[in-house]
Amino acid sequence: MLKKLSKKITLFSFLCFLLIILCTCKTISNFNDPFNEDMKFFPLETGASVYFFANVQEARSILELLPIRELNNNQAKQMLDKTGFAAGALFPKNNSRQFQLAAWGKYPGNADIAFSVNKSWEKMRSVTGQNYWHSAADRLSIAMNTRQAFIAQSKTIGALGDMQTDPFSAPPGIKIPEGFNDFRFNKNTPAAKAPLSLWIGNPASMIQQLFSGIARFPVQQIFISFFPQNENQYEAMIRLQLENASQARGMSAILNIAGGFSSASADMQITSLFLANQPVQYENNLDIKSAVLNRSDIAKILSMFF
């Protein structure tokens, strides 16, 4: 899915446009996390396939593995240098949105001047009452101040052409799934807060796709956190959230059986992520630690979920 998105997402022109003024800003240091464990909502739209939250500087080595070629150009790296934290969403093909991003960092105070002198950008009014800039050519909508940036891209849908997308979400935004903050902040483990955590928008469909043909219980949520380990090595912590403890025990038994029959011929992404270690049950949750992953492994796993 993300490979298809990478052909459509064109941030290059926007990044080139802001490069000069971005270079005048200092890089991030000691930037406070804008989200805490008591947060109930993200400032993002509903209906996404994947929602993620990242400490950008700590997660850079993982973010760079996303198969979006624009992330690897110099302009994108300049922007990442100025960003402390980001919450994002990637939407399915039947949604008019392509992606949405809310970022917190140290950005140029004269961005509006730069937009206003470029005829490719038009000033628009959000349904929230805030102003933003829109480029029909790139299908991008952007709002930026010295501390925050909101970016959204729309899809081109048939003869309708550019479907203008508001970068802001009507308050309060997307509701954070129950248990996600505890998972992200590692409340039940001694590990540090995850630099990159995500939840799957349609977990039942994802489990059906991954474990087709295997008897299973309905999974209500899938949370995943990625942790850098040694150089070029990573681990993932996965939480499957089920309706009750009985279903969690049943799902644990299924995964243990599947792990016992896994082989070199099996899908190595599924094996290394879900079947490398025995699940640990915590009430109605199953926590699974992945195998040690190299850069190639993590890139393939990310492509499964995006």
- Using the alpha-carbon principal axes, give the shape: elongated
Helix residue percentage: 25-40%
The overall pLDDT average reads 79
Q: Please tell me how large the radius of gyration is.
A: 20 Å
- Cα(first) to Cα(last) distance is 6 Å
* SSE string, helices as H and strands as E: HHEEHHEEHEEEEEHEHEEHHEEEH
Strand count, sense and barrel status of the largest sheet are: 13 strands, antiparallel
Q: Point out poorly predicted stretches.
A: 1-17, 19-24
Tally of DSSP helical segments: 10
Which oligomeric form is depicted? single chain
Q: Tell me the structural class.
A: alpha+beta
Strand content: 25-35%
Number of strands: 15
List the defining traits of the structure above.
single chain; 306 residues; alpha+beta; 13-stranded antiparallel sheet; 10 helices; disordered N terminus
Précis, in short:
This protein is an alpha+beta fold. It has helices at 2-8, 12-22, 60-63, 74-81, 111-116, 180-184, 203-210, 245-261, 268-275, 295-305, and strands spanning 41-42, 50-55, 83-90, 97-105, 122-125, 131-135, 140-144, 148-154, 174-175, 196-200, 219-228, 233-242, 280-282, 285-289, 293-294.
Description:
Helix 2 (12-22) crosses helix 4. The termini are close together. The chain is 28% helix and 27% strand. The chain is α+β, with helices and mostly antiparallel strands.
SSE layout:
Layout: H1 2-8, H2 12-22, E1 41-42, E2 50-55, H3 60-63, H4 74-81, E3 83-90, E4 97-105, H5 111-116, E5 122-125, E6 131-135, E7 140-144, E8 148-154, E9 174-175, H6 180-184, E10 196-200, H7 203-210, E11 219-228, E12 233-242, H8 245-261, H9 268-275, E13 280-282, E14 285-289, E15 293-294, H10 295-305
Antiparallel strand pairs: 1-9, 2-3, 2-10, 3-4, 4-8, 5-6, 6-7, 7-8, 10-11, 11-12, 12-14, 12-15, 13-14
Helix pairs in contact: 2-4, 9-10
